[in-house]
Amino acid sequence: MNVKDAGYIAFRCYPQQSPKWEAYGINHAVYGSGDSLSETREDARQALGLHLDCNADDIYFTELHEHQVAVDTPDHPAVWVRTLHEESPRRDEFRREIREIIAETLVTDPQYYDVFAFGTASTGDIVATIALPDDLVSNLLAQVGGTDRLYVCLPSKQDLQWQCLSNEFAEGEPGDVTVASLGLSDAASVADFSRLRQLHRVPCSISCSRTPNPLQGSLAVLCCNAPKFCQVHFRALLPPMHRG
Predict the structure, then answer these.
(1) For 197, which of 152, 185, 202, 236 could close a Cys bridge (C-beta 3.0–4.6 Å)?
(2) Which domain of life does this protein belong to (predicted)?
């Protein structure tokens, strides 16, 4: 059997809607829905089969589950946080804890919405993900795909830091910094990126591309238009981490 890797599929649950579940492709323009996760998963798989012109049973994809941590209001778009299901329960639990911190902070400190001031994703809302130090940067960039803009939460021992990744299709003013200019290797980890970001004061928002290897992409980017905001972005607006 020739298994085809279809990249990432994001799943969302809307308990008050019918159908309750929706799925959308991040690396391929496909959509699925259903009243259960399994039904939605199969619907997305069939859509991928048609899109890729292959047997749906031969398709493999990685699931990302998006959880709504803030609803849409007249002042702010909805905020969804992605979590990647892993074999390690400890890593899953840690990502859930970070997601809860983000949700609680948005309630107790509305100014925290300024973290997401660079704009929305192609979904019309804010999409964020939580990156752990040993995650690969290449996998993180692949999560941008058709989402066009992804906010990345980088937990440290002291706080939560944020980086916005955008591709050439995201709305916003182009800048001068590309992922390719950072000199990261294909095996670079999020920890490598974090060290580089601190050393070279990488802007709050940089770009990647929809190319197969976005680490080598050289495209127009969205960078921070207000350097002072970057300082606030990385310091004053960061909630403390929960400590044991």
Answers:
(1) 202
(2) Bacteria
- 154, 134 Cβ separation under 8 angstroms: no
What is the per-residue pLDDT across 138-150, written as a single tens digit (0 to 9) for each? 888 888 888 888 8
Query: How is the chain split into domains, by residue range?
Result: 1-64, 71-234
10 Å CB burial of residue 227 (0-12, 13-18, 19+) is exposed
Task: Using alpha carbons, list the distances in angstroms from residue 70 to 104, 126, 159, 196.
Answer: 9, 9, 20, 31
Per DSSP, the three-state class of 167 is coil
Structure tokens of 26? 């991040």
**Cβ distance 137 to 188 under 8 Å?**
yes
Burial class of 236 by CB neighbour count within 10 A (0 to 12, 13 to 18, 19+): exposed
Asked whether 28 and 48 are in contact (CB, 8 A), the reply is: yes
pTM of the model: 0.81
Provide the residue count of the chain: 244
Closest CA to 161 of 115, 110, 229: 115
Structure tokens at 65: 């589950």
- pLDDT digits over 174-212, tens only? 445 667 777 778 888 988 888 877 665 655 555 454 444
CA angle, residues 98, 122, 180, in degrees to nearest 5: 75
**Quick one: tokens of 183?**
């000199």
Q: How far apart (Å, rounded) are the C-alpha atoms in residues 184 and 171?
A: 25
Burial (Cβ within 10 Å: 0-12, 13-18, ≥19) of residue 144: buried
